[in-house]
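Problem statement: downstream parser choked on a complex file, so we are re-checking the raw output for the glutathione run. The parser issue turned out to be on our end (a line-ending mismatch), but while we're here, posting the original submission so the record is complete.
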Amino acid sequence: MLLRLSSTSPFARKARLAAAFLGIPLEEKMADTASSSDSLRIENPLGKIPTLIADDGESYYDSRVVLAYLDHVAGGGRIIPADPKARLAAMRLEALADGLMDAGVLVLYEGRFRPEDRHEPRWLEYQKDKMARAVDALEKLTPNGADVNNGTITLACALGFLDFRFGGEWRASHPRLVAFQEAFAAACPRFEDTKPHA
Ligand SMILES: N[C@@H](CCC(=O)N[C@@H](CS)C(=O)NCC(=O)O)C(=O)O
């Protein structure tokens, strides 16, 4: 199985952590999302990472589908809870943490794709408000970092992304999330060595 990724993508980190937790070996190949000649755009028409190419050549994306596929390969019910209520809670946690990362990525892309004098402050504030509301809601949810599932994997990656790209400001006023991240790091292999770096 081949994972297309970058060393900084928090969504790709989800796939790396899920595979490590499940004991599934993944070959990794860096992708250049900006390059029209990268085969990523054939493997995934959206040109996004992560994209997983299974041994039979089938491509899986986005990160939620990749996690579901890896869980299936591992026999099912390992990182996607089998119990319907627990599954819905984990899926919602994943959706919230994914949304936090989506908003953060949009903030970053404003800087990457538009010259500074054309940044739209209202748009940036709109996205940053989403991020702030999501972090506050996540703190209230008090997720258990020792319980590794699709929701907690995504939350751990979202917090790592905030550390890397937004200076870890969330830490000062969200002690339960700090405790969550520590518990998750102890429970899930490769949390340290998949930390994003430039
Ligand atoms: N919903 C997607 C989001 C993935 C995503 O936004 N990946 C970014 C890198 S962090 C990307 O591929 N950006 C390139 C682009 O949008 O063209 C997922 O969960 O996999």
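For whoever reads this later: The chain is about 55% helix and 5% strand.
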